[in-house]
C-alpha cells in the first residue's frame, strides 16, 4: 500500500511498513502499480505518527493524550474528530475503548 501525504513528504519515506509515494504521487520505482495511493493530509499524518510513536514507546494512546500531543505540536485541533474518523475509515487506526491503536497492514 502506498501513502501519499499532502505537503511533499520525501520519496519512498517509510511509515510503519507502508511506502510513501514520491512528490508527484507516483509509487517509488519497483513499487506495485496496482496499489492505489492512500492520501493523508498533513494533520492526519501527524495524528497517525503520534499514535504510532506513542505505541512504539509503550506510552498511552488515549484520545485525550493524543489531542494534547497534537496541541503541543502547535496544531489547531478543531477538526481532530474528522482526522480521526478519516484514519479509522482508511483502516490505519482502530479503537479499543478510548485507546487508539495503529493498524499494521504490512
What is the topology?
Layout: E1 2-5, E2 14-15, E3 18-20, E4 37-40, H1 42-56, H2 63-72, H3 80-89, E5 93-96, E6 99-102
Parallel strand pairs: 1-3, 1-4
Antiparallel strand pairs: 2-3, 5-6
Helix pairs in contact: 1-2, 1-3
Descriptive notes:
By secondary structure, this protein is an alpha/beta fold. The chain has three helices and six strands, in the order ββββαααββ. Strand 2 and strand 3 (18-20) form a beta hairpin. The N and C termini lie close together (8 Å). 22% of the residues are buried.
Radius of gyration: 14 Å
Approximately what portion of the residues adopt beta-strand conformation?
15-25%
- What's the arrangement of strands in the largest beta sheet? 2-3-1-4
List SSEs in N-to-C order.
Answer: EEEEHHHEE
Taking pLDDT < 50 over at least 5 consecutive residues as the criterion, the unreliable ranges are: 1-24
Query: Mean pLDDT across all residues, rounded?
Result: 77
Could you say which structural class the secondary elements and strand pairing correspond to?
alpha/beta
Q: Estimate the helix proportion, in percent.
A: 25-40%
Backbone shape: globular
